Amino acid sequence: MNYVAGSLILKRIGNLISKRSQPAVLSVLGLSQAERNMSDKGKESKEELKKRLSPIQYHVTQEKGTERAFTGKYNKTSEAGIYSCIVCSQDLFSSSTKFESGCGWPAFSDVIDQGRVKLSKDTSHVGANLLLLIANPGMVRTEVTCSNCNAHLGHVFNDGPKPSRKRFCINSASLDFRQGDPSGSNLVNLQ
C-alpha cells in the first residue's frame, strides 16, 4: 500500500469514529486516562473554561495576563513533583529544574520536553511605541505557551543557570502541581 492510499484509509477511519466511541478508541490505542483527559480538556470552549478555571487562571492562560509578582501559590514550592498545564494537564516542568530566581514567579531552567511548549516573540509590553523597541531591542520577550492547548504560561529569558542559561518565568496560575518523584512515578495531585 502506498502513502496516499494509507492516508486516505486513515482519514476514513477517523471520520467513522464518533465522539461516543472516542474514549474506547483512545483506550485501544494505549493512551492512559490522563492522556485521554488531556485530549478532552484541550478542546473546551471559552465559556467552559471560564466555569472551570478561577478568574486569575482564565486571565493568565486565555488573555495572556500576568499574576502579580510574589503572589502565586507555586513561587516558593520546593516539594518534588511535576508541574502541568492547568488547562489541559500536559506535563511541562519538573521540580528538579525549578530554582529560586528572585523574580517573583516560579522559575525553571528547562522543560520536560521541548515539544511541550511553544516559544514566540512578544512585544505586547512595548505597545505602539516602535521607537522604544528600535532603541531597546532587548525589550522583545519570548512568550511560552502550552503546545497542546495554546494556554499562555509566561516568558523565557536567557539569564538562567548553566548549562541551559534559560529562566522559564511561569505564572503559578497557569500550572497544576503533582507531588512525588519528578521523574513521573508515584505522583499525587495537590489540587
TrEMBL record:
MsrB domain residues: 46-180
Alphabetical list of Pfam families matching this protein: SelR
Keyword Repressor: no
UniProt GO cellular component terms: cytoplasm
Keywords for the protein's UniProt record, in alphabetical order: Metal-binding, Oxidoreductase, Zinc
Protein's GO biological process: protein repair; response to oxidative stress
EC numbers for this chain: 1.8.4.12
Cofactor(s) listed in the protein's UniProt record: Zn(2+)
Cofactor note: Binds 1 zinc ion per subunit.
Domain of life: Eukaryota
An annotated Gene Ontology molecular function: metal ion binding
UniProt KW Kinase keyword: no
Reaction(s) the record says it catalyses: L-methionyl-[protein] + [thioredoxin]-disulfide + H2O = L-methionyl-(R)-S-oxide-[protein] + [thioredoxin]-dithiol
NCBIfam families reported for this sequence: peptide-methionine (R)-S-oxide reductase MsrB (TIGR00357)
Homology family: Belongs to the MsrB Met sulfoxide reductase family.
UniProt function note: Methionine-sulfoxide reductase that specifically reduces methionine (R)-sulfoxide back to methionine. While in many cases methionine oxidation is the result of random oxidation following oxidative stress, methionine oxidation is also a post-translational modification that takes place on specific residues.
Stated name of the protein: Peptide-methionine (R)-S-oxide reductase
